[in-house]
Amino acid sequence: MTGPEPAASDRIHRHYLRVYFEDTDAGGMAYHARYLHWAERARTESLRAIGLPHNLMIERHGALLVVRRVEVEYWRPARLDSRVVVETAILRVTGAQILLDQTVRLAEEGSEAPGERLAGLKVGLVSVDQAALKPVPLPEPWRSVLKGLVLPAAG
C-alpha cells in the first residue's frame, strides 16, 4: 500500500547558500556562470536528500547523470553576501532523461517564504554508462522515485 501523494510544495527541493566574494564580479554582483555552479550543487543535494546520491548510482550501476542541455534566464542579480535559495523541481522523467526546472531566489534571513526570482534554469539530464558515455535507462530505484516527484501540473 502506498501513502498519499506528496503535495507540490513537498516535491520541490530547496538548497540555501550565501553569495561570497568569490562569486561576484567587480560590481559586487554574482557572476552569471555562478548560477550554473549553484544549480549543479542543488541538483546533487536534491538527490542526496532522497537517499539516492550520484555516487550510489555510479557504484551500483556504472551510470551517472550528465547535463545534456541548460537554458538560463536572468531577471535580477544576486549580490555579495545575499542569502539565496535554489529550488529544484522535476518536470519530466522518461527512459534515460530528466527535465528539471530550477529557480534561484533571494532568501530572507529566518524566512522560508519564497523571495524574489533572480534566475531560472531549464536543465535536461541524461543517464549514461560511465565507461562508454552512451545513454542508458535510468536505473531503479532512481527512475521510480524521481517519477514520483514530478510536479503534477508538469505531468
Any chance you could write out the topology, listing elements then pairs?
Elements: E1 13-18, H1 34-49, H2 54-61, E2 63-74, E3 83-94, E4 97-106, E5 117-129, H3 142-148
Antiparallel strand pairs: 1-3, 2-5, 3-4, 4-5
Question: Can you give a write-up of this model?
Answer:
With 155 residues, the chain is an alpha+beta fold. It has a single domain (10-108, 115-148), classed as Thiol Ester Dehydrase, Chain A (Roll), CATH 3.10.129. The protein has three helices and five strands. The protein has helices spanning 34-49, 54-61, 142-148; strands at residues 13-18, 63-74, 83-94, 97-106, 117-129. It has a five-stranded antiparallel beta sheet with strand order 1-3-4-5-2. The longest helix has 16 residues, at 34-49. It is globular. The model has no long low-confidence stretch (mean pLDDT 92).
Keywords:
155 residues; alpha+beta; Thiol Ester Dehydrase, Chain A; five-stranded antiparallel sheet; 3 helices; globular
**Structural class estimated from helices and strands:** alpha+beta
Radius of gyration: 16 Å
Level-1 CATH class name = Alpha Beta
Largest sheet, spatial ordering of strands: 1-3-4-5-2
CATH topology: Thiol Ester Dehydrase, Chain A
CATH homology superfamily name: Hotdog Thioesterase
**Total number of domains:** 1
| Number of alpha- plus pi-helical segments | 3
Q: Classify the beta-strand content into a percent band.
A: 25-35%
Distance between the termini: 22 Å
Q: Let me know the number of strands.
A: 5
